[in-house]
Amino acid sequence: MSNWLDEVKFDSNGLIPAIAQHHQTGRILMVAWMNRESLALTAEKNQAVYFSRSRQKLWHKGEESGHFQTVYEIRLDCDGDVIILQVEQHGGIACHTGRESCFYRKLTPQGWEIVDAQLKDPTAIYGDKAKTESHDHAHTTEQVDVLAHLGQLMQERKQAEADTSYVASLYKKGINKILEKVGEEGVETIIAAKDYAAQNTESNLNDLIYETADLWFHSIVMLGYFDLNPQLIIDELARRQGLSGLVEKANRNKV
């Protein structure tokens, strides 16, 4: 039997793009690169091994995150220059941003919109490396500033028809309706916090996180009504860092 690797057309750098696809759902999870050695190891181990162009070394998927990929099938395209891996994604997270798939943004008339939830904070997966290290996929995934995205989204929703989205309908109903929602979410957050304090269960924790997210979201809607960017709040919190709460309050009272 001839060496099957000889039929693979690696590029001038000895690399070939490899697409990881969920073996059951068919969803595209990520795109990375392989060289001859990593492809051979993938076939041998039945686990995805890629080649990192930035680090110039083999990269066993999951070696840092624990999110290994079990390979069920390897396919080569008609031109022999693209690989598809049918995989099981352990941990349900393929993307270094903490999402199931690296392809979590969809093109809409308003631009690229995030449509997949972040399943886990990257810092909880990679620690400090999450701030500086990517996984060198075949396309570049920009780190998304969620607050900036929401701030922009609010401005877009203000111009939209009321029946096109929940936020657009709130803006059309006016500030009193928005403030009513902020108040409702504040009360629900308090109730969720009291429930979690009384009974420390995972369900109550999830409720607290969910209600707090709702409160923050509707507060951002409120800021958007006044054309205020959420970054202003972040800037204010940053200003207070290293400043005693008592001192900050005293300074505020002097104004």
Largest sheet: 4 strands, mixed
The secondary structure category is: alpha+beta
The gyration radius over C-alpha positions equals 24 Å
Question: Between the first and last Cα atoms, what is the distance in angstroms?
Answer: 84 Å
> How much strand content do the residues show?
15-25%
Number of strands: 8
- Round the mean pLDDT to the nearest integer and report it: 86
Residue share in helix: 40-55%
- Strands of the widest sheet, in order across it, are 2-1-6-5
Low-confidence stretches: 131-144
Helical stretch count? 8
Strand/helix succession: EEHEEEEEEHHHHHHH
- Give the overall shape, derived from the CA principal axes: elongated
GO cellular component, one term: cytoplasm
Catalytic activity: 1-(5-phospho-beta-D-ribosyl)-ATP + H2O = 1-(5-phospho-beta-D-ribosyl)-5'-AMP + diphosphate + H(+); 1-(5-phospho-beta-D-ribosyl)-5'-AMP + H2O = 1-(5-phospho-beta-D-ribosyl)-5-[(5-phospho-beta-D-ribosylamino)methylideneamino]imidazole-4-carboxamide
Region (Phosphoribosyl-ATP pyrophosphohydrolase): 147-255
Organism: Acinetobacter pittii (Acinetobacter genomosp. 3)
Can you walk through the features of this model?
Helices cover about 40% and strands about 20% of the residues. It has about 260 residues and is an alpha+beta fold. A hairpin with a 4-residue loop joins strand 3 (about 50) and strand 4. Helix 3 crosses helix 6 (about 200-225).
